[in-house]
Amino acid sequence: MFPSSGEPHVKSTFAVCGSSGRDAGSALRNAATLERDSRCGMRGSQTHTPGHSKVATIYPQDPALLIGSSLTATCSVTPDHGIHAGSLYWTLNGKRLPSSSYSILSPSVLSVTLPKLSGSRQRSGDNLVCHNNGGHVLAGSCIYVGMPPEKPVNLTCWSRNTKDLTCRWAPGGQGETFIKTKYTLKYKLRWYGREKECEDHSTGEQYTCYIPRDLALFTPYEIWVEASNQLGSATSDVIYLDILDVVGELEDQLTVRWGTPPALKDFLFQAKYQIRYRLEESSDWKVVDDVGNQTSCRLAGLRPGTVYFVQVRCNPVGILGSRKAGIWSDWSHPTAASTPHSAERLMTGSCDSKAGQQNSTLRRDLKQFFGWVRKHAYGCSGMSIKLYDQWRVWLQKSHKTRNQVGSSRR
Q1: Does residue 107 surpass a pLDDT of 80?
Q2: CB-based contacts of 313, cutoff 8 Å, min separation 6
Q3: Is 330 exposed, middle or buried (0-12, 13-18, 19+ CB in 10 A)?
Q4: Gene3D superfamilies annotated for this entry (predicted)?
Q5: Contacts for 370-379 with beta carbons within 8 Å, 24 or more apart?
Q6: From CA 161, how far away is CA 105, in angstroms rounded?
Q7: Hey, is 66 helix, strand or coil?
Q8: What one-character DSSP code corresponds to residue 236?
Q9: Cβ-based neighbours of 80, under 8 Å, separated by 6 or more
């Protein structure tokens, strides 16, 4: 071995994982403190400064490994500096590794083997560092040991005022990957439009994202979450929603959804559906006949705070090219649901001081629109942007007429 006094003085440039590492001189003056720090202290940078040759390199640089994997790393010293591999030692997160895990591969190369690695102690990576026998840092590498993400679950979204959307989800499996994992909420209009990413995570809640504007009404969205880290990626199930469906039910309305009968999915047909509903205390059913082949419908004109029973049935139309109607199925088992009470808020616990006023205005406008729809459209199939535009024209004309009458009375 070379004596400590015979080793050349080495100035090292390195960067804490995730930082710029520009103050290399200060970092070296505090090398002892750094080695006690659990942060990853090296990220692919080697021991050299402008005008100085590189002293050592570690291979592999910044590897990502599955929990339970083993790693053999090498520290290769530039022969020009006269440093023998036998004088080197390794540390992991500031703790010196036993010499029994070392192997001298050549006069200038020392290896270390780390068997059955456990998850990284911090998401920024574990700090594997090669030193000379004077304690100076020669080179380092970040080790990322963890698991690939699992499919995110429990994706739910809600809107406060039809103009925004907040979505929340949970990481899949046990949730812990031990390394930094990025979650991205993506959305697009179901039948057209380009894919977009939610970028506002300022709600302060983990696994939550906020879309503040530029959302369309009466058009379903596809929404999903993608999770990714250095070991892999996973995508949640896609949910489909209309913004109006997640504002919170108006007090006189219920949204009904159902699925196509599994036994009929393999046939070439277009199904049409009927809905019927009744009050809990009544035996009289009201039938909504013109539902068409869609699998959701908003029932309006109901009593606030009242329990209703709802049933759906199906008629396969046009089996194997025939235009003849099929036979109606039996009614589904009744499902009970309650309309909201008129005093309920759309978003309980809201911190927005204007939320009550906004929700009151929203309720009034939407109730007026759906009331107009009941007079100008039939069943559920008439709901569309075109109808909404027609209502806006009608509303503007009625306001204009009201203003003219008011002016003539003065």
Answers
A1: yes
A2: 273, 274, 328, 329, 330, 331, 332
A3: exposed
A4: Immunoglobulins
A5: 370/250, 370/253, 370/298, 370/300, 371/300, 371/301, 373/300, 374/300, 374/301, 378/290, 379/288, 379/289, 379/290, 379/291, 379/292, 379/297
A6: 67
A7: strand
A8: P
A9: 53
Tokens representing residue 74 in the block:
């090498």
Q: Is 160 left (phi over 0), alpha (psi -120 to 50) or beta?
A: alpha
- Confidence band of 108 (pLDDT split at 50, 70, 90): very high
- Select from 36, 47, 38 the least CA-distant residue to 14: 47
* Spatial CA neighbour of 58 closest among 75, 77, 71: 75
Structure tokens at 388: 């909404």
Same domain, 255 and 374: no
Residue 410 is assigned to a structural domain of this protein:
no
Surface-to-core class of residue 186, CB atoms within 10 Å of its CB (0-12 exposed, 13-18 middle, 19+ buried): middle
Contact assessment for residue 124 and residue 142, using Cβ atoms and an 8 Å cutoff: yes
Clarify whether residues 57 and 141 are in a common domain: yes
pLDDT at 7: 33
- Residue 368: pLDDT band by 50, 70, 90 thresholds? low
Give yes or no: residues 16 and 96 share one domain. yes
Give the sign of the dihedral formed by CA 326, CA 327, CA 333, CA 338: positive
- Among candidate residues 122, 86, 125, the one with its CA nearest the CA of residue 107: 86
* Total tally of structural domains belonging to the chain: 4
Rounded-to-integer distance, Cα 56 and Cα 62, Å? 15
384 or 242, higher pLDDT:
242
Report residue 112's pLDDT band, with 50, 70 and 90 as the boundaries.
very high
Provide the β-strand partners of residue 388.
Answer: none
pTM: predicted TM-score of the whole model, two decimal places: 0.55
- Residue 360: domain span: 355-403
Cβ pair 27, 194 in contact under 8 A: no
- Of 36-50, 101-115, 187-201, 358-372, the range with the lowest mean pLDDT is 36-50
Count CA atoms within 13 Å of residue 341 on its CB side: 3
Q: How many residues does the chain have?
A: 410
| Residue in the structure block whose two tokens are 């209502």 | 391
Min mean pLDDT across 6-10, 41-45, 209-213, 258-262 is at 6-10
CA 230/CA 67 separation, integer angstroms = 13
71 assigned to some structural domain: yes
Distance, CA of 247 to CA of 162 (rounded, Å): 6
